[in-house]
Design brief:
Layout (H helix, E strand, L loop, with lengths): L14 H51 L41 H12 L41 E4 L5 H5 L13 E5 L1 E5 L3 E2 L10 H6 L10 E5 L4 E4 L47 E2 L1 E3 L9
Parallel strand pairs: 3-8
Antiparallel strand pairs: 1-2, 1-7, 2-5, 3-4, 5-6
Helix pairs in contact: 1-2
């Protein structure tokens, strides 16, 4: 005997119930998203620190192979020809930086030379928290070959700054040496120098007496939303610091000191658009990490 079929259909979700579920999901996402972003940034900081640690190891390898010297390109030790804050692209079509010299005092060549000689991959020069992308060596004579370039092909291929290793004669006379003898507590590389931009960053505003968090933040690299930067020191260790005042004697790692221990004055450029050397007046382990990221005065690099 067949059961009579039920005319009652199974009930589905009502519109109100669906809206409630969607609302709950949206609430959970809003609660979890900051935690996920924080976890992602933490992972990026670790990766970024690893990149700088590899750069430090490559510097030591290079020194072992070159009588203790760290990499540096052609140099002109005069105040009128000191390293521009930004000199990207000066060696993009040069396979030999010394036989066919790139621009004098090219800071970025210091990093690129490690890639040429120590087999670092271009991804090591990109902080995962920045918008930079690895160099594909597309502007050289031979496409895709890093040995046919001496500098990064685009401003978007570099997330880090390194010690401006082209001092003037006064700095040399007072002890500047770009080699393995550099002190272990001197900052020699870090996340990209923020430069100066009135709306976002102003590293020259940060001094040893700065206490306001907003002021201190302006001096930090933009790689990590100006929360701080990974810094490579002379002995090879890397530390994430929440302030740019972390060099020797707690001075600003992103600009030179002109004999003023408590301040970081602006870098004064001459008519040629270039900066003075790695302290100009003297050297006592001061860090002056270039290139800069933003700011019309300091040259523009858009990550």
């Amino acid at each position: 005997m067949m059961k009579p079929s039920s005319s009652k259909k199974s009930a589905g979700f009502t519109l109100v119930e669906l809206l409630v579920v969607i609302g709950i999901i949206a609430l959970l996402i809003s609660i979890l998203l900051p935690s996920l972003n924080k976890a992602r940034e933490t992972a990026n900081r670790v990766k970024c620190g690893s990149n700088l640690r590899q750069i430090g190891q490559a510097l030591n390898l290079y020194a072992n192979e070159n009588a203790g010297a760290f990499p540096r390109g052609p140099m002109a030790a005069t105040a009128a020809t000191m390293a521009p804050c930004v000199s990207l692209g000066s060696g993009n079509t040069k396979s030999d930086p010394f036989a066919t010299p790139i621009t004098n005092n090219d800071v970025n060549f210091e990093l690129y030379q490690l890639m040429r000689t120590e087999d670092l991959i271009s991804g090591v020069y990109v902080c995962p928290s920045s918008n930079a992308t690895p160099d594909t060596f597309t502007t050289g004579t031979t496409k895709g070959n890093k040995m046919y370039q001496c500098d990064f092909s685009l401003p978007t291929n570099l997330s880090y700054s390194i010690e401006m290793a082209y001092p003037d004669t006064a700095a040399v006379a007072t002890g500047f040496r770009w080699n393995y003898t550099i002190s272990g507590d001197v900052a020699i590389a870090a996340d990209l120098n923020p430069g100066d931009n009135t709306s976002t960053s102003s590293k020259v505003e940060v001094v040893t007496t700065s206490s306001a968090a907003s002021v201190t933040k302006q001096g930090n690299s933009t790689n990590h939303q100006q929360a701080g930067q990974n810094v490579l020191f002379g002995d090879g260790h890397v530390v994430f610091t929440q302030t740019c005042m972390c060099g020797l004697n707690n001075d600003n790692i992103y600009c030179r000191r002109s004999g003023v221990a408590s301040a970081c004055p602006p870098i004064v450029y001459n008519a040629g658009g270039v900066a003075p050397g790695a302290d100009s007046a003297y050297y006592d382990g001061d860090s002056y990490l270039l290139p800069c990221q933003v700011g019309a005065t300091y040259g523009a690099i858009s990550p």
